[in-house]
Write a structure and sequence with these properties.
Elements: H1 8-28, E1 37-45, E2 51-59, H2 64-73, H3 75-86, E3 95-100, H4 103-115
Parallel strand pairs: 2-3
Antiparallel strand pairs: 1-2
Helix pairs in contact: 1-3
């Protein structure tokens, strides 16, 4: 494993967690998230694999605050489902923290500025 940067195992675990969280969220359905579409855009995992910062993009972005609230209220349940999926590969199921991925909003803003 490399001393600096992100190690191979870290990247593999992050990708697996991203895939599993995306599936868990997809299975809950849009109705669960007040009609919003939620996409897991990235997962960054700590070197000791104990914390997974999960970036989600939400469409429409007007519902972002409400959806972030729903995600954070259900974090224990989501982590439990994640544990059922990755429990055999990982000794500990990482703590999950959700963060809003604003890159789509930023791109939209730049596009609007360019139209002027």
């Amino acid at each position: 494993m490399e001393k600096s940067g992100t190690g191979t195992r870290q990247l593999k675990v992050a990708r697996e967690i991203q895939k599993d969280l995306a599936e868990i969220i997809r299975r809950k359905g849009m109705a669960f998230f007040d009609g919003a579409m939620v996409t897991v855009s990235e997962v960054r995992i700590s070197p000791d694999l104990s914390v997974a910062k999960t970036y989600v993009s939400i469409f429409p972005s007007a519902k972002a605050d409400a959806v972030m609230g729903i995600l954070n209220e259900n974090i224990r349940e989501i982590r439990g489902e994640l544990g059922a999926r990755v429990g055999k590969q990982l000794r500990i199921v990482p703590e999950i923290y959700f963060a809003l991925d604003t890159t789509l909003d930023y791109a939209e803003h730049i596009e609007e500025l360019l139209k002027m």
